[in-house]
Every structure is written in structure tokens, then in C-alpha cells.
């Protein structure tokens, strides 16, 4: 009987550990996806020479993916356009999401496209 109780408690502990680690991996994937999207946006804006139509398309695509993309024009010289790009995203840890929305974390990535 003693061995059965030890085995059950060990299985429960291992299961809980696996669930927590899977949640951490999931949240890390959310951050990586946001960084990848941000890099794509910066490259598209730089490749288009800061074209406003590309900026609008990127903003709409960010809304579809659940991100908040802000692009500000910082151009001083017309031959060297510059944009400030800010991407805000939510990181959700699935296990803690069951406990309420206060466990969501907001991430921000900022940079420039020149």
C-alpha cells in the first residue's frame, strides 16, 4: 500500500511539472512569434523605402494576428526616410489563464526602420 501511494503522488507531481513546463514553452513561442512578425514588418517597411501603403498593410495584418502595431514617421531628410515601429502583444500562460486574466503579460518591441 505504501508503494502505491508513493507511485500515485509521484505520477501527479510529474504530470503537474509537465503541464507547467508546456505552458512556459507555449508562452515562449508566443514571444518568438511576435518577434518574428516584428522583424518581417521592419524588413517590409525598409524594403519599400517606408511606403505608407506598406505601413497600412502591416498595421492591418498586425490587428488580424492580435498585435497592436504603431508606426510613427521620424523623417528629417526626404532622401533618408525613418520610421519608429512599436509592436505590443499579449503573452498568455495557458495554465494560469484558468485562474483569470490578471496573469496576462504585455510585451513591447520597439525599433526603427531606416
Explain the overall architecture.
With 114 residues, the protein is an alpha+beta fold. Helix content is 56%, strand content 21%. It contains three helices and three strands, in the order H-H-E-E-H-E. A three-stranded antiparallel beta sheet has the order 1-2-3, with helices on one face. It is rod-shaped, with a radius of gyration of 21 Å. The termini are far apart.
The count of strands amounts to: 3
Q: Percent helix among the residues?
A: 55-70%
Q: Segments where pLDDT lies below 50 for 5+ residues?
A: none
Distance between the termini: 70 Å
Write the layout of secondary structure elements.
Layout: H1 2-47, H2 52-65, E1 68-73, E2 83-91, H3 94-97, E3 105-113
Antiparallel strand pairs: 1-2, 2-3
Could you list some keywords that capture this structure?
alpha+beta, three-stranded antiparallel sheet, 3 strands, rod-shaped
Give a quick precis of the structure.
The chain is an alpha+beta fold.
Amino acid at each position: 500500500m505504501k508503494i502505491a501511494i508513493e507511485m500515485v503522488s509521484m505520477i501527479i507531481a510529474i504530470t503537474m511539472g509537465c503541464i507547467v513546463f508546456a505552458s512556459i514553452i507555449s508562452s515562449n513561442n508566443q514571444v518568438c512569434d511576435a518577434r518574428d512578425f516584428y522583424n518581417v514588418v521592419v524588413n517590409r517597411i525598409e524594403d519599400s523605402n517606408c511606403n505608407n501603403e506598406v505601413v497600412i498593410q502591416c498595421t492591418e495584418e498586425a490587428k488580424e494576428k492580435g498585435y497592436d502595431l504603431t508606426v510613427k514617421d521620424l523623417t528629417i531628410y526626404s532622401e533618408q526616410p525613418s520610421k519608429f515601429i512599436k509592436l505590443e502583444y499579449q503573452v498568455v500562460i495557458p495554465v494560469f489563464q484558468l485562474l483569470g486574466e490578471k496573469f496576462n503579460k504585455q510585451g513591447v518591441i520597439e525599433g526603427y526602420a531606416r
